[in-house]
Each structure stands twice: as structure tokens, then as C-alpha cells.
Design a protein that fits this description.
- By secondary structure, the chain is mainly alpha-helical.
- It is built from 15 helices and 3 strands.
- A 3-stranded antiparallel beta sheet has the order 1-2-3.
- A hairpin with a 7-residue loop joins strand 1 and strand 2.
- It is elongated and about 65 Å long.
């Protein structure tokens, strides 16, 4: 008798059959498409109702900034070219859909940006900008940026710790770009100083704060735990953010160069710790993916040539670079992504959900079929 798990259908009626110890369940391509689309949003992947509503409220303000201070817009997009490639690199192990990354960016820019500006203004009005910077800003900004990751979990897009960090990074980058627009537009004669301080020296500040939320949510999801158990990531993000804002606020109030130096060293320490965390997590995800290929090959009947490619990270990168056109690279990435999500799913066998495995195994089969199209 077959062991519980996935088995190829010998009669060709379906790509896969699931044996639960009592009966067989066939998974067809049509069923796969249905399962894969069960949680698919009605809007395009790069949009959501919160993004549309807050975007509609933000666009007029952005238009005014563009008209009044066009240089602020030009300088404000520079972090995209500094932080963006780093986020792209850490996402290489399990590439997320471009539309999903765009959604996280727009969420940070529109939803987190708009809500945070309203709340911080309401707090600063009676209590002062110092209280807003040290108390309300870290709290509301990290909560609203972190909701982009929660939204990705809701869409079944977070399968690993790295996924959580990636969505956190893009959400934080979107927020940082909008915030930089505001600061640069208000800087007037000091615009170059603000550009150097915020864009050149500290473009990773927001992504490094919010990355802790992504790390915590990613760990919770992969272990089958509720998102509420990731509270510690939010606490770390808020704490680091408050420490950073507090040091800058105190330095500005006292005009003490020593405090500015300590603040700079603090950011260097935060930056170094955060980057070390990203490198370690990415390396662990990469090693786990490669080491999982033999298991995935046996469970999902991968041919030896695919095992040779995906079971060696250098081979994987070399082959992808050698593909001659975008269509082949797209099919290759679909196969890579499907395998990476299955590897992440099986990282904690006790938390494997058969329905989730069915959906991901179906995506793998469809990706393999697409890769072999002429």
C-alpha cells in the first residue's frame, strides 16, 4: 500500500494524486488553477482597497509637492536605486511576484504614509513635534508599514522568513520615499543637507526597522503560529525607531555635536546588525532550498536534469543567466519559485497543511509544464 503523500497518477488522468491512508484525491490542472486562485484578490495583485483609497487622498498632495518643489521629487526617488537592488538580491532565493512587491511599496507610500502623516500631525498639534517624533511616529509608522506584511499573509504570499523581510523592506521603502518627498519639499535652502542626511547616509533606516516585523511574522507563518505571536518584532521595530528619532530630536534641541556623533554611531550599529541579520537569513534560506531538492525530487518526481540545476545554487544562477529570452526566464523563475515555496513549506513538517501542499504542488506542476512549452 502506498505511503501517505503525493504520487504521480499512472493513468494520466491528473498530474498528482494525494493518498491520505484511506483514499485517493486527484489534483487536475483545472483544480490547481481553482485552488491557486481561491485566495486571489479581485483587484490586480499590485492593488488593494486600502491602497486605492489612501492613494486617492495622497496623489493630490504629491501633485502639489511636484508643482511647488520638483527637485524634491527628483532627489526623493534616489533611495529606490540604493535600497531597491538590495531588496531584489535578498529576494532571489524565493522570488516574490513583482505585482506583490509593487503592492507592498504602494502600501508603504499610500496607506502608511497617509495614515502616519495624519496621526503625527494630530499629535504634534497639541503636544509638540518632539512628542510626535519620539512617541507617535515610531508607533503608527511601524504598525501601518507592518500591515503590508499582514496583507501579504492574507493573500498566502508569505511562505518563509525571507518573504516577510522582503515585503517589510518594500513597504518601508515606499514609506521612506514619500517621507523624503515631504522633508525635501520643506527644506527650502537646506535641501542639499537634508538630501545628504536622509537619502545618502540613512536610506536603509525605515527598511531596517520594519525588517524586524517581517522577520517575526515570517517565523510565525512558517511555524504555523498566529500572527499575534510576532508581537516581539513590532516591539523591536518601534523601539529602534524611537531610539533613532529620540537621539536626532535631542541632538537638534541641544545642538550638541556629541549627541549627533552618538546618534550616527547608533545608526551604524543598527545598520550593521540589520545587514548581518539579512545575510544570515538569506544564506540559511539558500542552503535550505538546495538541501531540500533531493527530498522534493522524490516527493514530486523531479527528473534528474532538474535536480542537477536546482540542487546547486551556482548552476541555478548560471543557467538562468544563459537563458536567451524573457519567456524562458519567466518559466524558469516560476519553477524556481514553486520549488522554493514547497521547500519552505516542508521546513517544519509538523506544520504542513495538506491543502496548502496541494495548492503548491499544483503550482509546481503547472510551472513545469510552462517551462517545457516551445
Amino acid at each position: 500500500m502506498a505511503q501517505p503523500g503525493w504520487h504521480a497518477d499512472p493513468w494520466g488522468a491528473a498530474p498528482w494524486r494525494w493518498w491520505d491512508g484511506r483514499s485517493w484525491t486527484a489534483v487536475t490542472s483545472a483544480g490547481a488553477a481553482s485552488a491557486a486562485g481561491a485566495n486571489k484578490p479581485r483587484l490586480p495583485g499590485w492593488l488593494s482597497v486600502p491602497v486605492i483609497v489612501c492613494g486617492a487622498l495622497t496623489i493630490p498632495i504629491l501633485a502639489l509637492v511636484t508643482f511647488a518643489a520638483p527637485l524634491a521629487i527628483v532627489l526623493g526617488i534616489v533611495p529606490l536605486f540604493i535600497v531597491g537592488p538590495v531588496l531584489w538580491w535578498i529576494d532571489r532565493v524565493e522570488p516574490e511576484p513583482i505585482s506583490s512587491r509593487v503592492h507592498a511599496f504602494l502600501w508603504g507610500a499610500a496607506v502608511a504614509g497617509f495614515i502616519s502623516s495624519v496621526v503625527n500631525t494630530l499629535v504634534a498639534w497639541p503636544l509638540g513635534f518632539g512628542v510626535a517624533a519620539v512617541v507617535s511616529a515610531p508607533l503608527i509608522e511601524e504598525v501601518t508599514k507592518g500591515l503590508a506584511i499582514v496583507w501579504a499573509v492574507r493573500r498566502n504570499e508569505v511562505d518563509s522568513v525571507m518573504d516577510g523581510i522582503v515585503y517589510a523592506g518594500w513597504s518601508a521603502l515606499g514609506f521612506a520615499v514619500i517621507e523624503d518627498f515631504t522633508y525635501l519639499a520643506q527644506a527650502e535652502d537646506a535641501i542639499i543637507a537634508v538630501f545628504i542626511g536622509r537619502v545618502v547616509f540613512t536610506p536603509f533606516a525605515h527598511p531596517l526597522f520594519t525588517a524586524w516585523i517581517g522577520l517575526a511574522i515570517g517565523r510565525a507563518v512558517t511555524r504555523g503560529k498566529p500572527i499575534s505571536s510576532a508581537w516581539w518584532g513590532l516591539a523591536v521595530a518601534i523601539g529602534l525607531h524611537a531610539l533613532w528619532n529620540g537621539s536626532l530630536t535631542l541632538a537638534a534641541a541641544t545642538e550638541n555635536n556629541l549627541i549627533i556623533a552618538v546618534a550616527a554611531l547608533t545608526f551604524v550599529a543598527i545598520f550593521g546588525t540589520g545587514m548581518a541579520m539579512l545575510v544570515v537569513v538569506r544564506r540559511n534560506e539558500q542552503d535550505h532550498f538546495v538541501q531540500s531538492i533531493p527530498f522534493l525530487a522524490g516527493r514530486y518526481q523531479l527528473p534528474s536534469e532538474e535536480v542537477a540545476v536546482f540542487g546547486n545554487w551556482s548552476n541555478l544562477l548560471r543557467l538562468r543567466r544563459a537563458l536567451p529570452n524573457k519567456a524562458q526566464k519567466k518559466h524558469f523563475d516560476a519553477m524556481h519559485t514553486a520549488l522554493a515555496r514547497l521547500a519552505a513549506l516542508h521546513r517544519y513538517p509538523e506544520a504542513v497543511d495538506p491543502l496548502t501542499e496541494e495548492r503548491l504542488a499544483s503550482q509546481l506542476q503547472l510551472a513545469r509544464q510552462g517551462q517545457r512549452r516551445p
